[in-house]
Design brief:
YdhG-like domain-containing protein, globular
Length: 139
Amino acid sequence: MKSIKTVDEYIADAPENVRDRLNELREAIRSVAPAAVERISYGMPYYHYKGRLAYFALAKNHIGVYALFPDEKEFGKELERYSTSKGTIRFPLKEKLPIALIKKLLRARLRKLEKAARDKKLRNLPRFLAVYPVSTVRS
C-alpha cells in the first residue's frame, strides 16, 4: 500500500470516476475556509482551521465527511436521507454531492471553531482584561 502525502496524491490515487467529486468536495471546503491548512491525517484529506474543520474519505459506496458534528436541531431534516453518526456524514456515490448542504455544514463548523478560539483566548487573558475588555478600558 502506497503512502499518500498530499491531497493531490489522494485524489489522483482514487478511481477515475470519483475524482471529480473529490475535487468538488475539496473546492467546497477551500471556498468556505480559504485559510484552512490542507494536509493528510489518518490517511485522508484533513482541513485544520483553529481546530479540526473536516476530513473526507472515499469508501466503497460513499464519500464520508468527518468532524462536522452537525447540530441535530439545525440540520436534522436536511440530513435525514444520509447515513450519519456522531461527526460523520456519508454521501452515497450513486448520488450527486449536496455541495450547498456541505458548505452550510462547514460554515456552522467554522462558527463553532471561531467561538471556541475566542472563548479560549478570553480564558487565557488576565482576569482584569477578561472582565473589562481592552476596548472599554480608558487610559
